[in-house]
What does this fold into?
Amino acid sequence: MKNVLLTVVTVTLIIVLGITGFAYSGIYDVSANNGHSSVVSWFLSATRHESIARRAKDVEVPDLTDESLALAGINDFNSMCIGCHGAPGIGPEAIGQGLNPPAPDLADEAAEMSAAELFWVTKNGIMMTGMPAWGATHGDDAIWPVVAFMTKLPDLDADGYQQMLTAAAGQGHHAEEAPGAAHSHEESEASATSDIHVHDDGTEHDHGAAAKAAEEEAPAADDHSTHQHNED
Ligand code: HEC
It folds into this structure.
C-alpha cells in the first residue's frame, strides 16, 4: 500500500515537473504562422464544439422569423464581423488573414450551428482565439439581430448581400459607428464652434460657413470658454 502511494506521488511529481519544464523550455512554437499540430487541433476543436453545445442549451431563443430583425443586424455584422470572417463576395481583411486558428466562413457555420449556438459564441467569444466576446460591449438586444442575420447567410450570394445592405440603409438602419467615431464627430463639431468668437457684448465674429453651420447646431455655445473637448 505504501509502495502504491509512493509510486502515485512520484509519477504525479514527474508529470507536473515535465509540464512545467516544457512551458519554461520555450520549445513550443506559439507563432500564428503555423497552425497547431493535428492532435492539439483536434483537442481544441472537440473542446470548443462540446463546450458551445452544452452552454447554448440554456439560451432562450426569441422569435427570429421577423425579416426586419435580420435587416437590423446586417450593419453590425458588416462592421463588426467581416474584418475577420469576410462576407458573401468579400474576403477577410488583413487582421483576418493573419489569424490562427482562422476565422471560418460564417455562411458554413450558420448552416451547421443552431441560433442558440450562434448567439452564445457571438456573445461570449472563444478563449485563446481571435474571436471576441461581443457581450462585453453589446447587450443581448444588439446581438440577436446579428444572429437573425447570420441565419440568412447560407442563402446569400455577393449580390444578395449588397442588396440587403442597401435595403437596410433604406430602412434607416445605419452602420454602427465605432465607439471612437461618435466621439470624433462631437470633437470636430466642437473644434468648428471654437472658430466662432462670441463676445460678451453680443458681437460675433465667425470664420466661414462651416463655423456658421456649427453655430446653428450648437446655439447654446455663447461663450468661448464653453468650447471644451469632452475627453472621456
Ligand atoms: C478579430 C477577429 C474576429 C472578429 C472581429 C469576429 N470573429 Fe468570430 N471568430 C474568430 C475566430 C478566430 C474564430 C475561430 C475560433 C476557433 O476556431 O476556435 C471565430 C469563430 C466564430 C464562430 C464559429 C464558432 C464555431 O464553433 O465554429 C462564429 C459563429 C463567430 N465567430 C461569429 C462572429 C460574429 C457574429 C462576429 C461579429 C459580431 C465575429 N465572429 C467577429 C475571429 C473573429
